[in-house]
Write a structure and sequence with these properties.
By secondary structure, this protein is mainly α. It contains three helices and no strands. Helix 2 runs antiparallel to helix 3. The chain is elongated and about 65 Å long.
Length: 127
Amino acid sequence: MLLSSAGVKHGALYEIITSDPEEFPLPSFEFLHIKYAHQRALAGMCAVRCLKEIFNEKPPKPRGCYTGKPDSGRSINIFPGWSMLIQAALDAGIIDEKDAEQWTRLALEERYLDEVRTQRRQGNIFA
């Protein structure tokens, strides 16, 4: 099976073949299992370290420009990546509930401001 431009997908099954087992042998399954375990352990260690780096200080105070009711009438959702990071930091004990709420409000504000800037560029909102 040739890989498409979509790349490798989690949970997908792939058949690994070689045109010349003598010259280009396939790795053993034991080695692949060890490599997989190694990658998972390394990713876990790096993830906690990264979360500690991201959330190493108390969250800044929100500016108060987002009240939950944007001018456009549409609801603003936090960027999916941020909500996952905040939840992971909370689960790892890096931040507490209060800080998680503050980070979420700050992320919502940033998303709202991004939406406002986009609307202004498009000429839909006047300063």
